[in-house]
Amino acid sequence: MKSMLPSRQTLIAVGIVLLLTLIISDQAEAKKLSVVCTTSDLAALVREVGGDRVGVESIAKGYQDPHFVEAKPSFLLMLRRADLVVTVGLQLEIGWLPPLLTQCGNPKIQPGAAGYLEASQFAEILDIPTGPVSRAAGDVHPLGNPHYWLDPANGRRMAKGISERLGQLDSVNASYFAERFKDFDQRLATAEQRWDTSMKPYRGRKVVTYHNSVPNFARRFGLNVIGYVEPRPGIPPSPRHTIELINLMKRENCRIIMVEPYFDLKTPNAVARDTGAKLVEYLPSVGGEKGVDDYIKLFDYNIDLLTKAFAAAR
Ligand SMILES: [Zn+2]
């Protein structure tokens, strides 16, 4: 009895081949580390050193205030399958990350585990309080200022620390991650020369910022932050503080107000009108605007905005 149908043996062989293909591709997929970052800046650095050998997701988007992120079920799913979580630390994410980590049920990424990496350990941290601190003084960041990623020297150290941890978790690709870091390091050094040249004429310029988000940036590029639109970190503007700020800016001839995209512009606009200062809506994070999609482009964008504003505000 001859049939045109494939024999039983052929069917079994095809089945085995299919199964093997699935297993092998699944293993290749499993080898690619899955990294979840709390912010888009960390994700950008992971992308620099991880290349196509890691999968990267970020919880906070670049246009969001990283102090306040609404916890979503999708974040739990992301964390559940993560091999590594990278955080800013210094309590920036204290309002939303701890419950997500507890509830995701992934022991690999709990604080203290190899899959948990706080990037602040690699960075130079400013504003570390010397005396006792209390929440009454506002959202003070009692461990020091967590907005440290806006100094390229810190970005470099963070990228190096991330590449080393990726290499520990995936030793097969360790030299790939190290090479990627070297390449990033060189591109960053070239960009820094460009930024230094652009900012040089404006060293010593006085600025006001909304939140205390740019101490590392200001120190790196020689800007002098003389005040904040917030009366205290995390506390909304008050009429009394706004009047004091206006007087201070007039006295000090401060012509620039730097505002993050997630703050209300009402008070900064009023201060700008009263003092003749220019409002600079800078980006604290990668992804804050379309096209600003990597760490180097973030500085390119901000430095372009600032140098134009300084040049116009003579
Ligand atoms: Zn803050």
Give an account of the 3D structure.
The strands form 2 sheets. A 4-stranded parallel β-sheet has the order 2-1-3-4, covered by helices on one side. Strands 6-5-7-8 form a 4-stranded parallel β-sheet, with helices on both faces. Helix 6 packs parallel to helix 10 (295-312) and helix 8 (239-252) runs parallel beside helix 9 (266-275). The protein has helices at residues 8-31, 40-50, 73-80, 97-104, 152-169, 174-199, 215-221, 239-252, 266-275, 295-312, and strands at 33-37, 54-58, 84-87, 116-118, 206-209, 224-228, 256-258, 278-280. The chain is 46% helix and 10% strand. With 314 residues, the protein is an alpha/beta fold. It contains 10 helices and 8 strands. Strand 3, helix 4 (97-104) and strand 4 form a beta-alpha-beta unit. Bound molecules: zinc ion. Zinc ion binds next to loops. Zinc ion binds at residues 67, 141, 147, 211, 233.
Characteristics:
314 residues; alpha/beta; four-stranded parallel sheet; 8 strands; 10% strand; binds zinc ion
Strand proportion: 5-15%
| Strand tally | 8
Number of helices: 10
Query: What gyration radius follows from the Cα positions, in whole Å?
Result: 24 Å
Helix and strand run: HEHEHEHEHHEHEHEHEH
Q: Oligomerization state of this entry?
A: single chain
Low-confidence stretches: none
Could you give the distance between the termini?
97 Å
Largest sheet: 4 strands, parallel
Q: Helix fraction? A: 40-55%
Which descriptor suits the 3D outline? elongated
The whole-number mean of residue pLDDT values reads 92
Strand order of the largest sheet: 2-1-3-4
Bound ligands, each once: zinc ion
